Each structure stands twice: as structure tokens, then as C-alpha cells.
Amino acid sequence: MSLTFQNLPGPGGLVEIMVLAWLYYMVFVFFSGTRSAQVLTGLIVLIVALVLLTWWLNLEQLNWLLGRLTLYLVVALFIVFQPEIRRALAELGRQSILQQQSDSKQLVNHVVNAVMILSERKIGALIAIEGDIGTRSIQETGTPLDSAVTPELLAAMFFPHTPLHDGGVIIRDNRIVAAGCLFPLTQRPDIAKGLGTRHRAAMGLTEETDAIVVVVSEETGTVSVSWKGRLSRDFNKERLTRFLKAVLGKGLNREARWRKVRRELEMAPSTDEESSQTS
What we know:
7-stranded mixed β-sheet, YojJ-like (1, 55% helix, disordered C terminus, alpha+beta
């Protein structure tokens, strides 16, 4: 069987393929990490599988019908994913990577300073920094905000008898997006019995998302951090700063970040260690 190159795309066709591939890649980048990304990925896989199946089985009528339905599907996707599309378009003209790294360091400093203020005064706090997985459903349980992150504002939100002191604060893209939020409680039966609702809520949120949650104990002022479902306690200012920079830093490669984060977690006692000690 001889090979022919008559059906291969020319230079113009190669440019079109590259442009389409880039557009598809940008779409996945915009939606990556959100709950909508799972729906979008599932729909694309389903459509591609059906198109290939109808083409392979030579089902011309079904293949033609799928081709016509694709246009209506695109319109439906724009309607369903309207919030994500609006957010993605708003981010097109945002700051450069260097500026984002600077903002990340500033965010860490502001959060750490606020946590230290609350810890010294033994004021309970629950601060979540959103990762790639969205927390829109959690934000809807609280009061929506859109304000800059400052130590004074963060600390003031948790002072007793203020309207937003009860619940958690969510930070996304270096902005406070919601306060007074109700985080899901962890259902793990093996955690220390002395942990309160804030710590269980911190673990519950990090079990469902990739957010980082900083907790300040109201009774002792102890600072804890929950990430990926694990809660580590007894963070001082320096250790908390190193941990947050290691997780949020954009200039480190993945392996280096994991080494730094693992080192900080090993330096702080976890809930698993406490459970084994009390048993």
C-alpha cells in the first residue's frame, strides 16, 4: 500500500491547525480548576467520541446531525459558563507575571500580619486562599465582597460582635471576595477530639478543594494551616510565611515547591500526630 501526500494540509492548513489548537488550549486554561471544567471536558469527550463512532460506522445521518448540533452546543456553553467567561475576559489585560509574583508576596505578608494580630489577641479566625478549584458555592453562603487584602481589614472582620466575624473569609486573585462563609465540616473520625468547629471547617474545605486555610484558635491563639485535607498546627510568623510562599509562589518549579511545603509540614505537628499521642 503506497502512501500519498495529496490529502496532507498545506502551509495555510497548518496555520489553521495551530490557531485552532491554541484557541482550544486557551479555553482549557480559562476553565481549568473550576467545577465547570469537569462539565466542559466531559461534553467535549462525549462529542468527539460520538463523532468518531458515527464516522467509523459510516452513520452519515447521525454524523450530519451531530455536526449541526455543535453550533447550538456552543451557544449553550456560552450561557452555562457565562460567569467563567466574564472572569476570563476580565483577566486578559491583567498584570504581568513579575507583577503577579510581587502581588503574591504582598498577599502572603498581609495575611501573615493579620493572623499574627489575631493570634496575639486570641481572636478566632478562618481565612481561605482559593487555589485552582473554585469555591463559588461556598462564597454564596456568606456576604459577597470585592476589596483589597490588608492586615487591618482582615483582622477587623474577625473582631467579636462585628457582623462578619462568624464564619470564614475567602481570598481569590489577591482580593477578598466573601466573608462570613460557612465551610463544610470534615467527616473524618480519626482527628483529635480537642479540635473545634473552625479546624474541622478548615479541613472540610481543603478536602473538597485545593484552597489553603489558615486557622487561629479562639482559646489558645494557636495558628494552624490546613491544605489537601491535612491540618498542621503551631505555626509562628516565620514558618507561616515560608509555608504560604512555598505554596503560592509562582517562580518555583513543582518539585521544589513540594519539597519546601513538605519540609514545613514536617516541622509542624499535624492532627494525626496529636491523635496518636492522645490515644
